[in-house]
Amino acid sequence: MISIVASMFPSYSSILYQVLQDHTTQEEIQWLDSIPKTDSLALMTSFVKTPRFIQKTTIQKTSQNLIPEIPGFQVEHWNLVRLSRVWLLTFVSDFPKDQCIQTIETLFDTAELNELVALFSALPLLPFPEVWLPKATDAVRSNMGFVFDAIAIQNPFPFQYFSELAWNQLVLKTIFNAKPIELIYGLIERKNLNLAFSTIDFVKERWAAGRDVPANVWQLVSLYVSESEISLIERLFLSEKEEDQIAASLICSESNWNSFQSLFIKYPKYKEEIQKRKWDWSKLSIVFK
Amino acid sequence: MCENNHQTSNHPSHFENQNDSNEIPTHVELKWDEFQEKIRGFRFFDPHIHMVSRTTDDYQNMAQAGIVAVIEPAFWVGQPRTGLSTFKDYYSSLVGWERFRSSQFGIKHYCTIGLNSREANNERLADEVMEILPLYIYKEGVVGIGEIGFDDQTELEEKYYRLQLELAKEAKLPVQIHTPHRDKKRGTERSMSIALEHGLDPSFVVVDHNNEETVKSVLDQGFYAAFTIYPFTKMGNKRMVSIVEEYGAEKIMINSSADWGISDPLAIPKTAALMVSRGISHDVIRKVTYENAIEAFAKSGQIHVSDFENGLSSDPSDKFHGNSVLRGGQQPKRNQNSLFID
Ligand SMILES: [Zn+2]
C-alpha cells in the first residue's frame, strides 16, 4: 500500500528539495548536496550546523498545497534554515524504525530553540506519528513562544492526531497567549462542545479581570451557547468595539434559540450585512486583525 | 571526588572564598539616579553570567541599566549532577529556555558550553558528557567552550581540560577559562601553558577571574584577561578601576559572574559608573565593558552585533505572528515604582 502511494507521488524529500533549489544559492545547495543522507551522525550534526551554511532568508510565496497527501502542510514564511532542517529529517524517515526514532529523539533531547521549531514543523512528514504525539502535546505546554507556534500555527499534525482534550488545550492556549486562532489548521472542523464551554469560562475570567478577548474567539462558542448565557451575548452587543457587536450578531444569526432571535431584533445593526454575506467569522479575523 | 564538595559551604559562589577577603562592596555608594545618569548612553555586554540562577527581575534591571547581551558559560549549578540527562537538560536550557527568557527583556543571550572542572572529577560521567558535547558546541549562539579549567587542580581536571581544548581547536571556537580560587596564580599559569602546549592561539582564549597577581602574565602572553566583579570578594570594583588605570583597556574585560551566590548582575554598569566618576575615558570604559568581549567571542562567528546593538531584533519567525510571547499578553516591562500589581 505504502509503496504504491510512494510511487504515485514525488517523495517529501524531493518536493522540499525543489523549494530549496528555488531559494538557495549555488554554494548553499552544494553544501546540502554534500551531506551523506544515510549516515545518522552526519545528518544530526548537519542538522545542528545548518545555520553556518544556509542563510535565514524567508521563503515567500509557495504552493499552499505543497504536499497533496498532507493538506495544511506548508512552508510559506519559513526561513531557509528551518526548511533545510526539515528536509534533512525526511532522510531520517527512511531509516529502520528503531534508528529513525532514536535519531529524532536525540535531536529533540539536545535541541535549541530553532532546532525545536524545525523538529515540530517536520512532525507531519515523519513516520510513526504515535511516537511523536506526546512531544507535540508537550510543545503546547511550552512557554517558549516560537516552539508553541511551531506546533500550533499552520501545522496539520494536531488537527490530525491530537485527542479532543489536547486539541482543546491547544486552542485555549492560543487564545490565552493572544495569538491568532485563525492560523490553527482545522480550527472550524474540530469545533466541539467542551471547547465551547471552556471558552465561555475563559471569557468570563477575562472579563472579571477587566481584560477582553479577540472577537473571533466567539466562533468557538457559536452553535453551543445556551440560552442561559444570553447575558454574555447582550454584553457583547453593548461593547464599544465594532468587532464584538459583529461577533454577537453572527452568534445570533447562527442560533436557533428564540431568545437569541429576540436579541437580534433588539440589536439589528449588522443583520442585513450578515445576510448579504459581508460578514462571517473568517472576515472578522481578517478585518480586525 | 564528592568529598571535596563539603568545602562549598564556605563558598558563596563557585569561585570565591568568603574567608580570604575583607573587601567591602563599593557599589552602594552611588544613589540610583546618579548611577543612571553616569551610565547614560552606554551599552554593556556581560560575557560571564549564570542567568539560570537569576530571576526575571534581574533581566528587567539589567536591560534598564543598558546590558544588551550576555554570555552564559556552562558551569556548576551548586550541587553535583548525577547523570547525563541532567547535563543535557542544563545545556538545553542554556540554548533554549534561558535564551528565550532573555530575549523577552531585549537582551541577546549567548552561551559557552563545556564540562566544568568540578564535575570533571567524576570520570564515568565526564566521559559521557564528552560524547554529547559535539552536538552542542556547533549550535547557533554557542560562542565558545567554557567555562573549563581547574578547580582543585586534579589529574582528572587536567584530562578533561585538555580534551576540551582539542575540541575547541577543532571547532575553531574561543575558550573561556575558569581559574581556581585556591592557589590561583599557579592554576592560572598552568591553564595558560597547557593551552599553549595544545597550540591554541591565545587571542582565542579568555582567562577569567583575574586579579592583580595574575593580570600581567595573562596579558603579556597574549590572552584576554577577564575580571569578575563580585561583592565581598577579591575583586571589588574600586580595585578594578585601578587595574584599568594601570593596564589600559587592551584585552581586558569585566564581567559579573553573577550566579546563585551573593553576586550582582549589575556589576558591569556599576563599575562603569565608578570609572566615569574616576575620570576614565568613555572609550576605555566601552572597551572593557562591551567591545573587548565582543571582539574575543565574535571569533566564533556566532556574534552579530547588529542583532543587539540597537535593541534585539529577533529571527523573523519569532515575531512572524506579531504576538507577544509572554503569557496572557504581559508586557516585558512593568512599572516597579507602582504599588499596584496589575
Ligand atoms: Zn562562572
Helix content of chain A: 55-70%
Secondary-structure element order of chain B, N to C: HEHEHHEHEHEHEHEHEHHH
Total tally of structural domains of chain B:
1
CATH arch. level architecture of chain B: Alpha-Beta Barrel
The gyration radius over C-alpha positions of chain B equals 19 Å
The most extensive interface between chains reads: A-B, 35 and 29 residues
- The CATH class of chain B turns out to be Alpha Beta
Poorly predicted regions of chain B are 1-12, 15-27, 314-330
Largest sheet of chain B: 8 strands, parallel
- Percent of residues in β-strands of chain B: 5-15%
| Total number of helices of chain B | 12
Q: Say which CATH homologous superfamily of chain B is assigned.
A: Metal-dependent hydrolases
- Mean model confidence by pLDDT of chain B: 85
SSE order of chain A, one letter for each helix or strand: HHHHHHHHHHHHHHHHH
Short structural summary:
The complex is a heterodimer of chains A (289) and B (342). Chain A is mainly α and 289 residues long.
Considering the chains and any ligands shown, give keywords for the structure.
heterodimer; A: 289 residues; mainly alpha; 61% helix; elongated; disordered N terminus; B: 342 residues; alpha/beta; TIM Barrel; eight-stranded parallel β-sheet; 12 helices; 8 strands; globular; binds zinc ion; Putative metallo-dependent hydrolase (chain B)
